[in-house]
Amino acid sequence: MREGEVVVLANGADDNPQDGERLADYVVDVYPLNRYCFGSKDALSTKDETLADSLLRLKSNYEARGLRTSVQAVILVELFQHPHLLLLQVNNRTFDLPGGRLRQGESDLEGLRRKLSRKLSLDEGSDEVEWEVGDCLGMWWRPDFETLLYPYLPPNIKQPKECAKLFLVKLPVSRKFIVPKNLKLLAVPLCQVHDNHKTYGPIIAGIPQLLSKYSFNMIEA
Fold first, then answer.
1. pTM attached to this predicted model
2. Are 85 and 75 in contact (CB under 8 A)?
3. Of residues 150, 164, 166, the one with CA closest to residue 211
4. Is residue 34 classed as helix, strand or coil in its secondary structure?
5. Burial environment of residue 25 by CB neighbours within 10 A (0 to 12, 13 to 18, 19 or more)
6. FRET partner for 199 with CA separation of 20 to 30 A, picked from 2, 20, 120, 208?
7. Are 193 and 76 in contact (CB under 8 A)?
8. Beta strands in the chain (DSSP E)
9. DSSP three-state, residue 90
10. Residue 93: predicted pLDDT
11. Hey, is 64 helix, strand or coil?
């Protein structure tokens, strides 16, 4: 057996779900967009840099702190009986999932909740807004100081430079979003995101596949 070869482990296995499997865990309630309201707050400081500048900063941070880990939220709302993905747009150019880089010693859940509060609610340090963080949908890896990220860690890479984790975040029935003035919050149809690497990049474009195991319960207005 050589590295990279396909290995047959079993044939004819029963792929039916076990009786005890909790299928309800794979049903996501998606509430109408009109149940949410929106406001704005002071702009966040952002770095207006090229892709090359960003990679240089990643290299500098890696030398100082090691692997960079970021956490990103997949948040859905209903519009026209179709799930829409919440995205942030920076300078009317790039699209990002809400989230960001973890601090040293910070857990995934703590960091994601902090980032969501910073970008989507009034106060980063407020305990008034709770975020229900669910399943980890996937992980993307940057093996080296390059532009490409992979949805797996290549076996020959022992010291990856970045890991991005995607989490499903479930919204309550209603909420007020407070967005920094220099960011734009968008609701993008899931069908428009699907496989649209050119516009949204590989991570966002791959979200519909990550959500394919879920059933969406569209809550009527």
1. 0.86
2. yes
3. 166
4. helix
5. exposed
6. 120
7. no
8. 27-30, 36-41, 68-74, 76-79, 82-90, 94-96, 99-101, 132-142, 162-170, 175-180, 183-189, 215-218
9. strand
10. 80
11. helix
d(CA 206, CA 218) in angstroms, rounded, equals 22
Tokens of 10: 């079993």
Cβ atoms of residues 219 and 30 within 8 Å: yes
Amino acid (1-letter code) at residue 170? K
pLDDT of 115-167, one tens digit each? Answer: 999 999 976 655 556 899 999 999 999 999 988 889 999 889 999 999 999 99
- Among 85, 29, 82, residue whose Cα is nearest residue 217: 29
Torsion sign (Cα): 47, 48, 49, 54: positive
